[in-house]
Amino acid sequence: MNPIEDKDVLLQNISSSEYFPITYKELEQEAKQTMSVGGFGYVRSGAGNEETLRKNEESFSKLSFLPRFLRDVSELDTSVQLFGRTYPYPIFLAPVGMQKLAHKEGEIASAKAAATHRVPFVLSTVSSYSIEDVANATGDSPKWFQLYWSNNEEISFNMVKRAEEAGFEAIVLTIDTPMLGWRVEDIRNRFSPLKLGLGKANYEADPVFLRSLENQDAESIIHGILNNINHPTLNWKHVAALKERTSLPILLKGILHPEDARLAVENGIDGIIVSNHGGRQLDGVISAIDALPLIVEEVKGAVPVLFDSGIRRGTDVVKALALGADAVFIGRPFIYGLAVDGQNGVEKVLANFIEETKISISLAGISSVKDLPALKIVTS
Ligand SMILES: Cc1cc2nc3c(=O)[nH]c(=O)nc-3n(C[C@H](O)[C@H](O)[C@H](O)COP(=O)(O)O)c2cc1C
Ligand SMILES: O=C(O)C(=O)c1ccccc1
User: For domain 8-379, which architecture applies?
Assistant: First the structure.
């Protein structure tokens, strides 16, 4: 094989005889061809009139780099340190539930793809494959567990215990979903993946959940999940209770207000994820990237600040890091890769993300991800 093709991801793509979608738009179009109307609509859409979904992307386009030159960018260090671990890139796969929606191998395929790049995988509570199945399929590759608090908190504690025992290294408590957002596209398509049983794996495998049911037939399990997933009473006391039950680092996902960031730090939380859930919860909220600097300013380095919502390509990763994020989660782009070509599709999406990120950091005149906060960004 030509040695140039071997090393250079740009040239590899250019010389490839196989078509693989390269931009987010193309990925979305290709994924649409492989998914059901309801499944695709579920992944693509935002809540309400999709104002926030649109804003997430528009806000990124309004940010412009002020690059520096003549600084020798021949070496680049993309590694990041979080909670005592070193990761090769500041990129994670976001917790996305019910990945069988995109591909029959679901989370097994995407977690394996993440493992090939040593990219951490965040498993959702409502995954299509269980904590144990994903752990067994991916060995010692880095994994975190995302928790949706259950109405019966013993179920939450047991899921966290299972995640700990299976080698997951942090708990991501999602706080922006005390109930599901107003999902207009799903009403249009009459579509509920939870009702179809696509998110039941962790519940089905949980003895505490199963014991809480009167019957354990398929219908009762779905009913039990629907009863547990909405938790409108969720408050800081639950956060304190979770802290009592696990020695793993706890991150809160969905913070948008600086006051909540301050409370998180005061309550001993280990990390914050600035996110608006990809525009899927409260429509009309601030774009996540516009909220990021406010949170970074409030937190002042007390705990790591991670980011998601609206990242579509490598330059978006660089923008989020330049504005003070320590790492980012990618959501829909990898799900579309999964839909297009399973594990291989996610591997390609990640390879392209990583490469565009690296090229962009270097072209901006920076040699280490740690120096990205020094990269100037203006709004135009
Ligand atoms: C289909 C789908 C399912 C999701 N499921 C979850 C979930 O189970 N738990 C969670 O915390 N976030 C969930 N999210 C939100 C993602 O973790 C992430 O915040 C969002 O996708 C980031 O935005 P992006 O898609 O623009 O990258 C989901 C997002 C999508 C698109
Ligand atoms: O669809 C989502 O965004 C999501 O996070 C979710 C929440 C509850 C059940 C299933 C998915």
Answer: Alpha-Beta Barrel (3.20)
